[in-house]
Amino acid sequence: MATIADWRTLAASKRESLAAKIPAEWRLPASIVSQINQSSNLCVLDIPKTCGILTEHELELTEKYDATALVDMIIKKETTSHEVTMAFCKRAAIAQQVTNCCTEIMFDEALKRAKECDSYLATNGVPMGPVHGLPISLKDSFNVKGTQTTIGYVSFITHPPAAQNSNLVEILFKQGAVFYVKTNLPQTMMAADSDNNVFGRTLNPNKLSLTAGGSTGGEAALLRMRGSVLGVGTDIAGSIRIPALCNGILGFKPTSGRIPFGGKVPPGRLGSPSSIIPVIGPEGHSIRDMELFMKTVIDTEPWDVDEGTLAVPWRNVSPISRPLRFGLIRADPKFPLHPSMQRTIQTAVAALETAGYSIIPIDDEIPSIYTTAVLAWKFFLLDPKKTPVEHINASGEPWVPSIASCSFPELADWQPSLDELFDMNVQRRKILKVYHDLVVKSQLDAILMPAYQATAVPHDTYGVPIYTILPNLLDFPAATIPFLKASKDLDKDFIQNGVTYVPTYDAEAVEGAPCAIQLVGKPMKDEELIRIMELVAATLNSLP
Amino acid sequence: MATIADWRTLAASKRESLAAKIPAEWRLPASIVSQINQSSNLCVLDIPKTCGILTEHELELTEKYDATALVDMIIKKETTSHEVTMAFCKRAAIAQQVTNCCTEIMFDEALKRAKECDSYLATNGVPMGPVHGLPISLKDSFNVKGTQTTIGYVSFITHPPAAQNSNLVEILFKQGAVFYVKTNLPQTMMAADSDNNVFGRTLNPNKLSLTAGGSTGGEAALLRMRGSVLGVGTDIAGSIRIPALCNGILGFKPTSGRIPFGGKVPPGRLGSPSSIIPVIGPEGHSIRDMELFMKTVIDTEPWDVDEGTLAVPWRNVSPISRPLRFGLIRADPKFPLHPSMQRTIQTAVAALETAGYSIIPIDDEIPSIYTTAVLAWKFFLLDPKKTPVEHINASGEPWVPSIASCSFPELADWQPSLDELFDMNVQRRKILKVYHDLVVKSQLDAILMPAYQATAVPHDTYGVPIYTILPNLLDFPAATIPFLKASKDLDKDFIQNGVTYVPTYDAEAVEGAPCAIQLVGKPMKDEELIRIMELVAATLNSLP
To answer: I want to staple B239 with a disulfide (CB 3.0 to 4.6 A). Which of A368, A466, B215, B322 is the partner?
Structure first.
């Protein structure tokens, strides 16, 4: 067992080697860096534009286009992969200095790879694939050959670099992707603050004093800084959607089994008999980029690479022209919506109704969302060996504060058993049947619901993600779409009397934080959910 | 707790009420019935033809056509559902008297329903669906509204009749199916002899002294008697394919999640966290009938009815014209192939090679099939409550003999634990990866292997089904195709020296028993497996 002194030294050395990968000419001046801290209310979104490190053209490349457009421009030779990659490397370096979003920096490898992509196109006249030359950022838990995967455990710092790419990474690589950074996540990945003892905490670029969310929080902060145009995360309880909400970007959690999950580094023990299956999904800026990711991966027939992937092709679904029908979940009484989220949902509902869509409230027809979340959480605690604890204890590092706040008091002394697991599965199936039958009976295209009771909140106060975990328990695809922002002036009319907001509602603290809605689709109908997202985003006019 | 006297009386009353549902004019004479016993070597396949109960036309309807043809004839009004149903009711009544294959008889309801189908067609000019007017037989574990589901537990005899159809039954009903019998299965469904204390033992119509297999054994015996043209079974370790092999019919086990499984009566506890998922599939006489079943069910979008069904459409796959590539598993050393099965596999391989197909032996590249089967079996023993034992003990009935022979000595004292379940899942995943990678690397279209080391064997000697359980563990679709028959003359050249046959090879006892090959397809490629079955059956000329 390492001593505490050991782990601090180990973690510091890892951070130093990360910092050393940012070239001197991309370093921000002390005047900016000195302002960066987790108590600051600073918004750092403008720093890439004002710091002078990126050229005008690089600013344009990183800000003006989505991934689909950039690939198109690279293939048409209106730009090059090298130029695009250089721009995103620079911008990621800036994002890292102001939000602490990265865990691994691979700028040199990426620029070399980008040149290879450009040469390939020049030589062959055709692109490598649908993400030809595109820089794609990855959550740290993905293996990239030759790069470490510590996933924020100090005890993993001594691990050698990955010998193999994760299955998804290999697939994207063959389709032309350029990997240039991996991004930060919470200790154990089971918290909503991307904070760990190796890399420290990722800050929210909209307001540094707010959480960036988790577990794919580094990714979302990077994307919000436009230090990435397309990022890849994972989601078992909201890990794609929580940071997407907190930062103000798009997050898409597919049905399980559609995107190859094999070959990643898990935070816990392999072989869990949990009925909740972790999934990989994209975070980004445009809905067509969500489809670009899904279609690119699934069109490669990834089931030939990954034995856990369903051999089900991506279907090209036409735009939907009939009036959509949405089930509406307003709130769980235990976690009433903060005024900003209340206004967001009500505004969205009003806009969708005005557009001729049907909204069918279903709060009274579903079991308690809170109780459902408690059941779901049990599935994450099944390992009698408590492997994440072993990983923590192996270095002597302490627990980060958010782990304590992200837990259910009901489960403080809960011990898993095989016998109860049978009952848990029966309970899960009953809940699934309620939602399934509701969707069929009411002919719902999707369910509209909050992704969280609030916006991004101050660090370590997020608590349990009962609104995002629901689609994981059901294995329904789900997405968050940014919509509106917290505004104490507009929100004050939405304060409910006689309710207890958890966490505390502090209008000043969250002022300006992005809000979002969550859309939950039908299982295996990921394709349709993307079409629905397009219609909703257009109706709400919620994307740039 | 009931006394032993109670359970005998209860079971006898159930059998009597079943027997009473066979009209007097469909009863076989004592001269035939007196010959029926489980020690007899009698083949009873000709009795429907010779007993005089069916008209010539009824014999033709039951013998000459497959389900696809019968539906076509009904829709074209070349016959009626009532006429077809009457013929199969009569023939099922005969089958029941010589093989004891039925558990529930619904002749009156079926003939009434058949008339409704005929009226519907006459009135509407269109059929109800792709199985319009077709009699379909069901394994006892399916619920048919108004009929009991005892699944061979004495303690279930006091249960009321089913209040609802199983999801699959409801779907088939809406597509025009006529249900007229349910069929026998083993106590607990976890044995290869369809024997229980409620209904007794189903005999093999090819030779009464041989097992009819299990757990869908009543179904297969009924089909072999042509007392059914299309039957529905379930399979978790071979329960469709074992009886299909033993009786000489086709059996098809799809990938899990494709056919709705909800609303059946389970032999054990619901909510199992097992990685082996039970599936429903067809048994029958033609490969196009296997597709008729699969396509009919999946075209209804059964995921709207059943929350456990994958929303994945049935794909219409064109016939394959390129030369197929088969992986070949010859045998596990612990269960060497009996001479008849050895000859069957070798003959099939030779014929397929002659037809220009590639055969790639893979025995040396896979983990022990026996060890794999032991792992698989553990997944069936996960319930700490041992619910099947509770169901048995509730009536005081004893265990049937085959339960003892269908067990692994390694697991005699094995107790499940949540901790080991994690390791079991890791082991399963490793095995899955070996097969997955082999199939991809060697570009295999399917794996050809025995379904069992022998043909049907004498009652209670079948033992553990290591060759059929493999595709269940992998969740690969699999099918058995009848091919050749045991022949002591032809088989004697295939006797291997120095091996121990388990069970004992008794050439005389199995003389004339049907043989079969097993084809294992790729997961979710059920459609392609059917195309492959067609090519193999045509090459082997193995179907009538």
So the answer is: B215
pLDDT digits (tens, 9 = 90+) for B364-387: 999 999 999 999 999 999 999 999
**Which residue of the set A14, A139, A207, A525 is catalytic?**
A139
CATH of A325-540, one of 3.30.1330.10, 2.30.300.10, 3.90.1300.10, 3.40.1010.20: 3.90.1300.10
Contact B384 A418 (CB under 8 A): yes
Q: Any catalytic annotation for residue A119?
A: no
Is B237 marked as binding a ligand?
yes
Select the residue of A273, A305, A525 nearest B273 (Cβ to Cβ).
A273
**Position A202: which residue type?**
T
Mutation target vs A (from B258, B303, B390, B418; most A CBs, 10 A cutoff): B418
pLDDT at A544: 72
Q: CA A282 from chain center: how many Å?
A: 7
Q: Chain B: residue nearest A526 by CA?
A: B311
Alpha-carbon distance A428 to nearest alpha carbon in chain B (angstroms): 9
Determine contact, residues A45/A206, Cβ cutoff 8 Å.
yes
B481 is in an annotated binding site: no
Please tell me the CATH superfamily of domain B4-304, with its number.
Answer: Amidase signature (AS) domain (3.90.1300.10)
Residue B447 has φ and ψ, to the nearest 5°, of -110, 130
Instruction: Judge whether B318 is annotated as a binding position.
Output: no
pLDDT mean over B189-210: 97
Element at A136 (helix H, strand E):
strand A135-139
Helices marked H in B2-158: 4-19, 30-33, 47-50, 56-63, 67-75, 81-99, 107-124
Closest CA to B462 of B517, B530, B404: B404
Task: Indicate whether this model's pTM tops 0.95.
Answer: yes
How many residues are given for chain A?
A: 544
3-state secondary structure of A138: strand
Mention every residue, 6+ apart, whose C-beta is less than 8 A from residue A440: B304, B305
pLDDT score of B5 more than 70:
no
Closest CA to A183 of A129, A159, A147: A147
Round to whole Å and give the CA distance between B537 and A117: 49
Helix (H) or strand (E) holding A169: helix A167-174
H/E element holding A489? helix A488-491
- Structure token pair of residue A192: 């909503």
Which of B275, B276, B307 to mutate against chain A (most A CBs within 10 Å)? B307
The answer to whether the CB of B403 falls within 8 A of the CB of B389 is no
A239 is catalytic: yes
Domain assignments of chain B as residue spans, ordered by start:
4-304, 325-540
Is A139 among the catalytic positions? yes
What letter would DSSP give residue A458?
B
**Nearest-CB residue to B384 (from A271, A385, A419):** A419
Look at A273 and B425 and tell me if their CB atoms are within 8 Å: yes
Q: Which tokens in the block code for residue B132? A: 């319009």
| Shortest distance, CA B470 to any CA of chain A (angstroms) | 16
| Conformation bin of residue A213: beta by default, left when phi > 0, alpha when psi is -120 to 50 | left
Whether residues B418 and A418 touch (CB distance < 8 A) is answered with yes
Element (H, E) at A295: helix A287-299
pLDDT of residue B479: 98
Question: Is pLDDT of B542 > 90?
Answer: no
Q: Which residues of chain A have pLDDT under 70?
A: 1-5
Q: How far apart are the first and last CA of chain A?
A: 51
The bridge status of strand A230-235 relative to strand B514-520 is unpaired
Rounded to the nearest integer, the mean pLDDT of chain B is 97
**CATH 3.90.1300.10 matches A4-32+53-304:** yes
B325-540 shares the fold of B4-304: yes
Hey, CA dihedral for A349, A350, A353, A354, is it positive or negative?
negative
Taking a C-beta distance cutoff of 8 angstroms, is the pair B222, B228 a contact?
yes
Side-chain half-sphere exposure of B151, counting CA atoms within 13 A: 21
